[in-house]
Amino acid sequence: MTLLGERDLQTLMRNVMRQVAADQVEVVAYGGTSSLTRFANNYIHQNVQESSTQVRVRAVIGKKIGVATTDDVSEGALSAVARRAVEIARLQQDNEDFVSLPGPAPIAKVPARLPQTAECGPERRADVVRAVCDAAKAASLVAAGAFRTGESEIAVMNSLGVWAYHDDATADINTVVMGETSSGHAERWTLDVNEIDGTALAAEAIDKARRSINPHMLEPGDYDVILEEYAVADLMDYFAYLSFGSRAFVEKRSFMSGRIGEKVMGENVSIWDDGHSREGIPSPFDWEGAPRKRVDFIEKGIARGVVWDSYEANEQGVENTGHALPAGETFGPIPGNMFMATGNATKEEMLASTKRGIWVSRFWYTRPVHPLNVVLTGMTRDGTFLIEDGKIVAPVHNLRFTQGYLEAMNQVEMIGHESRLLSGFGGSCRVPALKIKDWTFTGSSTSIPE
Predict the structure, then answer these.
(1) Taking a C-beta distance cutoff of 8 angstroms, is the pair 152, 5 a contact?
(2) Domains of the chain with CATH codes
(3) 211 by DSSP, 3-state: which?
(4) What are phi and psi of 394, to 5 degrees?
(5) What is the tens place of the pLDDT at every residue in 410-441?
(6) What global pTM score does this model have?
(7) I need a surface site. Which of 175, 213, 399, 422 has the fewest CB within 10 A?
(8) Of 323, 342, 344, which is closest to residue 279 (Cα–Cα)?
(9) Is residue 221 helix, strand or coil?
(10) Which stretches of the chain score pLDDT less than 50?
């Protein structure tokens, strides 16, 4: 057992709170153990393990707020961080928009710590990695990547009566398999380490690497695209980052601003956030101990809402949805458990329906060009293919695009009937593959990303 556990954390945090001389006090503890097996050139080259516990104290004196953090949980260090938060608060100017820390509210327990994942050792990870490396070697390719398992816990306590505790265990693996002129990628993220199959992971990456040997140049232009789930996750990341948080919404930097109730995406598109779903990586409360509520961003193309924390919600007189970041962060609330509704298409059906288009495995190095309209520029990588008459006919060099993600979500022609859990901005996302009309590619590159 590497976690401190609910009882010991509660005792530790109460002791810290008693030492904070302030009108309101919040203590957050977050920690756990992360174990990582790295591999390259078809062999394991590193096993590392890291354990830590961080304690963050927020002291409120009137409307002055101070935040201090330590990763030393000795008695002396905890006393020092309690004093430091108060000292910092006294040096601040009043925050006139601050009303109060949140009060207690019921929080549902969501089991997310499976023993097989929490107790997974290096031997189990090595078996999975061996399957990947052996398969790559047999295909005359080179595999690299990392397999991580870990367990974590978070607890929040404040002087208004909030107490929240959650623990979990997760496993994730990624690999890139490379040849002289090609590459393929695959990844998994799950609560159950037993769901990670090294043979299947290798087969996915190797298949792309084999099929993308000796790519061709392709003229820039507008093409119908089939985006695998990895590419769709990038779309969700930027909607989370740029559009679905209340700060961007209030400051009118989000396309959602002034458009609640209006059609903003295709009617086949629904996107939401749900921290209680075990189809994702559950997170039942935020960094203030407020329960996370399901938030529907887009419902059948209609804009419905954004996520809020207590500060923004109090300022605007709306309901807190429980999406605060750690005290001291200034970005504002963000979604961390995003989902996109599936459709009824298979990837084979998407392919068969495409007269001429591009199959995209994933994106990389994407950057905002026009944040309000979610216009991005970036590159494809690890398997980009030309489609003609319903068939993949050739691999192509990686393509640069400049495309409005919001515009693209108004041109979704088909949605995959299955979804995949992937890492996302601020947490996780579960998304299907998409077929989208008229994606704008502006150039190409002959180099293989490293």
Answers:
(1) no
(2) 6-195 (3.30.2290.10), 215-450 (no CATH)
(3) helix
(4) -165, 150
(5) 999 999 999 999 998 889 999 999 999 999 99
(6) 0.96
(7) 213
(8) 342
(9) strand
(10) 1
